[in-house]
Write a structure and sequence with these properties.
By secondary structure, this protein is α/β, with parallel strands linked by helices. The chain has one domain. The chain is 46% helix and 24% strand. The chain is built from four helices and six strands; from the N terminus they run H-E-E-E-H-H-H-E-E-E. The strands form two sheets. Strands 1-3-5-6 form a four-stranded mixed β-sheet. It has a two-stranded parallel ribbon with strand order 2-4. A hairpin with a 2-residue loop joins strand 5 and strand 6. It starts with a helix and ends in a 6-residue tail after the last strand.
Length: 123
C-alpha cells in the first residue's frame, strides 16, 4: 500500500515539474518576442556621416514604445544587441562610406540615449 502511495506521489511531482518547465518555456518565448517587437518597432536607423568613415550608427525607438522596452527583463534584454548588430550588417561598406563595423552604436528612445557600445579595433 505504501509503495502504491509513493508511486502516485512521484507521478504527481513529475507532472508538476513538467508544468513548471512549460511555464518557464512560455515565459522565455514571451521575453524573446518582446525583444523582437522592439527591433520591429525601431522608428529609424541613422548612419552618420553619410559619406566617408562612419562614426555613429543610431537606433531610434519611438517614445510611444518606451514601455515595451522597459518590461523586458535584463536577462533577455542582452539579446537585443546581437539583433541590432544584424541590422548593422545590412549597412555594409559602400562606395561613399566605410567603417560600419567599428562605428559607435547608440540606442535612443525619443531623444534620450539609453545605451551605446562600440566594437574594438583588432590590428
Amino acid at each position: 500500500m505504501a509503495f502504491l502511495f509513493a508511486i502516485i506521489l512521484m507521478a504527481k511531482m513529475f507532472s508538476k515539474g513538467i508544468d513548471k518547465v512549460k511555464d518557464i518555456k512560455h515565459l522565455r518565448d514571451d521575453e524573446i518576442a518582446k525583444v523582437d517587437y522592439i527591433v520591429e518597432k525601431l522608428s529609424h536607423i541613422d548612419v552618420s556621416p553619410k559619406v566617408g568613415k562612419v562614426e555613429f550608427i543610431e537606433f531610434h525607438l519611438d517614445p510611444s514604445d518606451e514601455s515595451a522596452f522597459y518590461v523586458i527583463s535584463p536577462e533577455y534584454l542582452k539579446r537585443l544587441r546581437p539583433k541590432l548588430e544584424n541590422l548593422v550588417n545590412q549597412f555594409e561598406q559602400t562606395d561613399s562610406s566605410y567603417g560600419h563595423k567599428y562605428a559607435e552604436r547608440r540606442f535612443f528612445i525619443g531623444d534620450k540615449l539609453i545605451f551605446s557600445w562600440q566594437n574594438k579595433v583588432k590590428i
